[in-house]
UniProtKB/TrEMBL annotation:
This is Protoheme IX farnesyltransferase. It comes from Methylacidimicrobium tartarophylax. It catalyses: heme b + (2E,6E)-farnesyl diphosphate + H2O = Fe(II)-heme o + diphosphate. Pfam families: UbiA. It is a multi-pass membrane protein. HAMAP family: CyoE_CtaB. Keywords: Cell membrane, Heme biosynthesis, Membrane, Transferase, Transmembrane, Transmembrane helix. Its main location: membrane. Belongs to the UbiA prenyltransferase family. Protoheme IX farnesyltransferase subfamily. It comes from the Bacteria. GO terms for cellular component: plasma membrane.
Length: 317
């Protein structure tokens, strides 16, 4: 067997280190401006606010004469944006303790302690006053009053009612259905049957949309003490039955322009197809309520609304 002679020394082997001993690369620092914008987007519930502004713009387009007054539409959207941001912030201020207990919301800026609640409330009140005043001055007083009613319903009724009664979903749907009415009032300065139609579409759509979310996060809601229908109804049959009921009503309401003669035939065909697909998702959820069917209903609701509103804008007479 060969061995090492005096003039033959072994070469040193590289040191073996464990993977855990290798220092992890330092996380890349996020620039301060990006962090600020992210916090702001979370604070004002950016995606929800964006949906509010979309429906406001649709309401303005339906209510305005052709061609659409671009500057007037901008005024309606900007004013509503300030009010919507105020509502979102005040909701997070009031619910900061509940938000901190839920996985879905525990990282919100106020709940996580990154933003002071009193400072956020002061900023929200300023936004609310600015938004209502802006609408009254640059759109009309009616639009400002509807925006004020939306804010009051959301903050003063819906938010505290979540801890008291499952009827909170109905009240929340009222505040969520008013933004297109703000836009319509801003364009037409009147509330009529068309404004009621827009309100009905948004109100009815929110019920299956909210019920799907509630099912997916029912453990979170129960932990936080929210009296949602999915919490008080142990079997879930009331919730799934109401889901089908409101989706069916939405299907019928969406066909009202056909009866009134206010939308062209392509709208009616598109609305019927969209409504039947949405109703199928609701029935599927009712027959087999679980996370898969609830998620399917949620994504169906997300697809349904912008498509229906797009058809309305394109084919409204």
């Amino acid at each position: 067997m060969k061995g090492f002679t005096h003039d033959q020394t072994p070469l040193p082997l590289p040191a073996v280190t464990s993977r855990s001993a290798i220092p992890a690369p330092a996380p890349r620092a996020i620039p301060a401006p990006i962090r600020w914008w992210r916090e702001l987007a979370e604070l004002i519930k950016f995606r929800l606010t964006l949906l509010v502004l979309l429906t406001t713009l649709v309401g303005y387009c339906i209510g305005s004469a052709h061609p659409i007054d671009g500057l007037g539409a901008l005024h309606a959207v900007l004013g509503t944006a300030l009010v919507a941001a105020a509502a979102a912030i005040l909701n997070e201020v009031i619910e900061r303790r509940q938000d901190a207990q839920m996985i879905r919301t525990q990282n919100r800026p106020i709940a996580a302690g990154r933003v002071d609640g009193s400072h956020a409330a002061a900023a929200a009140v300023a936004c609310a006053l600015a938004g209502v005043s802006y609408l009254a001055l640059f759109a009309n007083v009616l639009a400002g009053l509807v925006a004020a009613a939306t804010l009051a319903t959301y903050v003063c009724l819906y938010t505290p009612l979540k801890l008291i009664s499952p009827w909170n979903t109905w009240v929340g749907a009222v505040s969520g259905a008013l933004p297109p009415v703000i836009g319509y009032a801003g364009a037409r300065n009147v509330l009529d049957g068309t404004a009621l139609f827009l309100f009905a579409i948004l109100f009815l759509w929110q019920m299956p949309h909210f019920f799907a979310i509630a099912w997916l996060y029912r453990n979170d809601y129960e932990k936080a003490g929210f009296r949602m229908l999915v919490v008080v109804d142990a079997t879930g049959r009331k919730l799934t039955s109401q889901t089908v009921f409101f989706t069916a009503l939405l299907f019928l309401a969406s066909l009202w322009p056909m009866v009134a003669g206010t939308a062209a035939l392509p709208y009616t065909i598109g609305a019927a197809i969209l409504g039947l697909l949405f109703l199928w998702s609701a029935v599927r959820f009712h027959n087999k309520p679980n996370r898969t069917t609830a998620r399917g209903l949620f994504f169906s609701s997300i697809a349904y609304l912008p498509l229906l509103l797009g058809l309305l804008v394109l084919f409204w007479r």
